[in-house]
Amino acid sequence: MGHLDHAAFGWLTPVLSYAMACIGAALALRCTVRALDATGRSRRNWLLTAASALGTGIWTMHFAAMLGFGVTGTDIRFNVPLTILSLLVAVAVVGVGVFAVGYGRVRGRSLMIGGLTTGIGVASMHYMGMAALRLHGEVTYDPVLVALSVVIAVVAATAALWAGLNIHTPAAVVVASLVMGVAVTSMHYTGMFAVDVEVVPSSAELPGATAMQFIFPLAVGLGSYLFITSAFVALSPTAKERAAYASAEQLTEPDERAVDVAPPGFRAAERGAHAGGRERATAGASYGSSSRAAPSYAYPAGPVDSGPPGP
Description:
Layout: E1 4-5, H1 12-37, H2 40-66, E2 70-71, E3 76-78, H3 80-103, H4 107-131, E4 133-135, E5 137-141, H5 143-166, H6 170-193, E6 195-199, H7 211-235, H8 239-252, E7 267-268, H9 273-287, E8 297-298
Antiparallel strand pairs: 1-2, 3-4, 5-6, 7-8
Helix pairs in contact: 1-2, 1-5, 1-6, 1-7, 2-3, 2-4, 2-7, 3-4, 4-5, 5-6
């Protein structure tokens, strides 16, 4: 039996995998909050972003941890098509759970369906990624630890979807993301501790790509996607913020429909050069030879009601 090393680079890969899980969870939570405040196509787009963020974060966590996985007595390669398929599976099953919660009418039932589907899908992604391993030997699993890892995946997925429905403040999202990162990382290492490898020495060349040839560039690219998407979500205003901005603009912009309303008993003076001449002539006739300028408003021809007479 070969000796398994789950942290060939020390604490680097466990910490990096945990960070990827937390970032993916936080981004998915923020996108889910935005989706629940939106309608129509906007809701769908936010849910798609949440699914891609959470699925990508979980997959990146898994293979960032796999960078530190080694077996004494054999090299390790990865089957490229199967590894990429595991990424697509992760995003797809997370998308099913996120959309079930985002569009479900009965939240409790939607949460259970989404959590179960997503948890089983995440576990499937993990073991599909493990199936992509190529080494000189035979890989076996402890069924009890495998079952435990699936249970952890379902609980973690249900908690993630519940948090998306109930947690809205940024501080609460941070705390929930840290907890979810622990849950997802625990699921991964529980599944890894279930692995046993019986090494069969061989000089034959293994098919597939090494972790540094394939997994590392892909993990870096997906990690960059998570960071860029996080910046976009952080800078994008929420529905409440957009409503506040629109309300503030309505208060500061002048109302084009406003009209100059004269006081009771007055009529507005006509404007324009020709109308102004007639107004001055009328004012001159009314005031005689007075040199005072005509007021903006003139008394009408009839009597003016000045209110009730004094005592």
